[in-house]
Design brief:
Blueprint lengths: L1 H15 L19 E4 L4 H4 L3 H15 L3 E6 L2 E6 L1 H15 L13 E5 L11 H19 L3 E6 L6 H13 L9 H16 L3 H16 L4 H24 L5 E2 L6 H13 L3 E4 L2 E4 L11 E4 L7 H16 L3 E7 L3 H13 L8 E6 L2 E2 L15 H19 L6 H18 L7 E2 L2 H4 L7 H21 L15 H8 L1 H10 L4 H20 L7 H25 L8
Parallel strand pairs: 4-5, 4-10, 5-6, 10-11, 12-13
Antiparallel strand pairs: 1-3, 2-3, 7-8, 8-9
Helix pairs in contact: 4-17, 4-20, 6-7, 6-8, 10-11, 13-14, 16-19, 16-20, 17-19, 18-19, 19-20
The structure holds arginine.
């Protein structure tokens, strides 16, 4: 599609004298109208004519010079229809030439995108809820990488705050009763739950915890800090197991604690902007000038300790100084909307020019059929258990459908993890999702396994062709006439990728994959590939290989494996 777009823009530019860079080729609203469209409104000023007149004149002119492309004026639009053989040959050719990089580009060269992702809290299990940030954030990062942006993925670990005062208290009291080494996260969760059960009846617990946190913040390198360090290391080790299963890596792991040395200077900077005030002993920024009745942002509490927001303010300045970003994205649940409004609110009040570049990339909650998850009430699904179970189920399906499969365990892991990841990315990110096992793991419909299965099926056709020595003839591209919808879908991938980046919306890739897989299967059921007249088989095989490669490329952006067989 890129080749046609360039060709059309050049032709339009030649005919009008308007620079090609100012001309945009779009998709027609109705695919029946054509394969590509050009809205003539942008030319009205330069040509001093009404758009429908421009469309009619230009279409006639272009039809004289374009070969294999028909220009049809429809109101203020010119629609273009590409001859089917040419369409197939060009798009399949583009995919073949670009291989696994199909659709990638250098659009983002020189631009930096900072992505705050995953960011779980230490000493708590990473729940399916945290899966969302990890998986969405990592996909957003890969999407931008593919377009040549410099990306910086930062895991902003929640390793600071009063809860660590509480955990140290709990460990000191009951630590001997749990086995921290073999399953640290579950042991810490048990302590956390117990702490909250006993806190009400025993006021010394809360007192001790607040002392502990004050000591932690004071920087004293004593018992509290040592215990905190140990908790952090144990937790990170567990998290890393999950990250490696998901194939996610970070450019920086900077917990909230990292920003401790920057807190004072951050507060001073905000004070210097003249937007702070004292309120009941606490240091705050009034945000009512931003929005009536908006609650103030608390920077420092009466007891001198700082807050989540203070640390995020320190972090955002740090990121800006370090990376001079074009966008700074926070992939964090929609339940923190207010927190990010406050963060941006403080920047606005300080008249920070780059405030609009700071964006909360919110996502919906992941709910269980029985309701919201809650760590305190013990109603969580452990991410690790989810991945285990998904892989197990995939293993069963494979045993049933393809008992001969080599490497079945590896592939079961790829399918299981792929199912969970794809499920998480398939709806627009701001929507809540229900986690329903039966939906996550089917090989049908809009699921990861369905796309993976389609990819593997195409692979099997190619292997059979190679065995039979078919597909070596010159392709007869006209044999792909009825594959035009599929070929157009493949051709639109580069545009889908760009739109997904702009909207930070991996679900655009997911839906493209689902639709494309459906179209591949529909075409394949209607057309035999092997054993046809040599030119026909050759053309169909080239399409099979191109579709397979494009599906793999799309899956790779999501972090989903594309096994050759399953
Ligand atoms: N640790 C936080 C939580 O789990 C999320 C942190 C998100 N990132 C940030 N810069 N605030 O709720």
């Amino acid at each position: 599609m890129q080749a046609f777009e360039t060709q059309l823009r050049d032709a339009l530019s030649n005919a009008t004298g308007v620079p090609a860079a100012d001309l945009r080729i779009e998709n027609p609203r109705d695919p029946a109208l054509g394969d590509l469209a050009f809205p003539c409104f942008v030319l009205a000023k330069a040509l001093k004519k009404a758009p429908p007149a421009i469309a009619a004149e230009l279409a006639a002119k272009l039809n004289d010079e374009l070969e294999g492309i028909e220009a049809i004026a429809t109101g203020p639009y010119i629609n273009f229809k590409v001859e089917r053989g040419l369409l197939a040959k060009t798009i399949v050719g583009e995919i073949e030439a670009q291989g696994s990089q199909y659709g990638h580009g250098t659009d983002g060269a020189g631009k930096t995108i900072v992505i705050d992702l995953s960011s779980p809290n230490i000493a708590k299990p990473m729940s399916v809820g945290h899966l969302r940030s990890t998986v969405i954030g990592a996909a957003i990062q890969r999407i931008h990488d593919a377009l040549g942006y410099r990306t910086v993925g930062i895991n902003h670990i929640g390793d600071w705050g009063i809860q660590f005062g509480k955990l140290v208290t709990a460990l000191d009291r009951w630590g001997s009763e749990v086995d921290l080494e073999s399953d640290p996260i579950k042991a810490l969760l048990a302590l956390y739950v117990r702490y909250h059960e006993e806190e009400e009846g025993d006021p010394t617990l809360a007192e001790q915890s607040s002392k502990n946190f004050q000591e932690l913040e004071s920087g004293v390198d004593g018992h509290v800090r040592k215990t905190w360090k140990r908790l952090t290391e144990l937790s990170l080790r567990e998290f890393d197991k999950i990250y490696s299963r998901l194939g996610v890596t970070f450019d920086e792991v900077r917990g909230e604690a990292f920003y401790e040395p920057y807190l004072e200077s951050t507060i001073e900077r905000i004070q210097a902007a003249g937007v702070t005030q004292m309120s009941e002993g606490a240091l705050i920024v009034d945000l009512t000038p931003i929005r009536k009745k908006m609650a103030p942002c608390l920077l420092r509490k009466t007891d001198g300790t700082t807050l989540y927001a203070t640390r995020d303010l320190a972090a955002v300045f740090h990121r800006h100084e370090l990376y001079d970003f074009d966008r700074c994205l926070y992939v964090v649940g929609g339940d923190q909307k207010f927190h990010f409004e406050q963060l941006k609110g403080v920047l606005k009040r300080m008249n920070v020019a780059w405030e609009p570049k700071v964006e909360h990339i919110a996502f919906g909650m992941m709910n269980l059929p029985e309701g919201k998850m809650s760590t305190r009430e013990g109603r969580v699904v452990f991410l690790e258990d989810v991945l285990d179970r998904a892989a197990e189920e995939a293993r069963k399906i494979i045993a049933e459908k393809n008992p001969e499969l080599a490497n079945a365990d590896v592939i079961a892991e790829q399918v299981g993890v792929g199912a969970v990841v794809f499920n998480d990315l398939k709806r627009e990110r701001e929507k809540d999702i229900q986690f329903v096992w039966e939906e996550v793991l089917t090989f049908e419909g809009e699921t990861g396994p369905y796309v993976q299965y389609t990819h593997a099926r195409l692979g099997s056709i190619l292997r059979k062709a190679a065995e039979a020595g078919e597909g070596t003839a010159d392709p007869d591209w006209r044999a792909l006439e009825d594959a035009a919808p599929l070929i157009l879908r493949l051709g639109r991938f580069p545009a889908v990728l760009r739109s997904a980046a702009e909207h930070a919306e991996p679900s655009e890739i997911t839906s493209w994959l689902s639709t494309c897989a459906r179209e591949v299967n529909a075409w394949y059921t209607q057309h035999r590939v092997l054993g046809q007249e040599a030119g026909i088989t050759a053309a169909r095989l080239r399409l099979v290989a191109a579709a397979k490669s494009a599906l793999a490329g799309g899956l790779a952006l999501l972090g989903v494996a594309a096994p050759e067989e399953m």
